[in-house]
Amino acid sequence: MDPHQVLGVRRGATPQQVTQAFRREARRGGHPDTGGDAHAFRRLVAARDALLTPAPAGPATPPVSSPPPRPRPAAQPRPRPAARPARRGSDSSALPLIVLAFVAFITVPHILLAIVLVVVP
Q1: How far apart are alpha carbons 91 and 80 in whole angstroms?
Q2: What count of other Cβ atoms lies within 10 Å of the Cβ of residue 3?
Q3: Of 41, 72, 86, 89, whose CB is crowded by the most CB atoms within 10 A?
Q4: Rounded CA gap, 7 and 9, in Å?
Q5: pLDDT score of 85
Q6: How many C-beta atoms lie closer than 10 Å to residue 50's C-beta?
Q7: CB-count exposure of residue 21 (10 Å: 0-12, 13-18, 19+)
Q8: Maximum average pLDDT range among 53-57, 72-76, 91-95, 112-116
Q9: Of 23, 24, 22, 42, nearest to 32 (Cα)?
Q10: What is the pLDDT of residue 54?
Q11: Neighbours of 16 (CB within 10 A)
Q12: What is the per-residue DSSP string for 29-82?
């Protein structure tokens, strides 16, 4: 059957008109998921594909003198996203401060106390 008759479009219809007609017919009950006939849907799909597929231009003869194909430009690498700043209150950024405070307020006074107790009789 003629694909134009199956979809209900005139000859020379644009691809947008063909697509709209296909969707319209599928909504009218041609789609198997909405209770339509699977065979009828296959006919709709075949008609749409026949109208949207470009027809061959004629016998496949190589062109007499065609320019060589242009090389494709190299793909540009995507820029990396900027590094996120460290969050406030993060344990990883506070760890050196915690170690420094431990050494300054706990370890050093104990060492000084031990020296004083050894030196002073």
Answers
A1: 26
A2: 17
A3: 41
A4: 6
A5: 65
A6: 15
A7: buried
A8: 112-116
A9: 42
A10: 75
A11: 8
A12: IISGGGT--HHHHHHHHHHHHHHHSPPP-SS----SS-PPPPPPPPPPPPPPPP
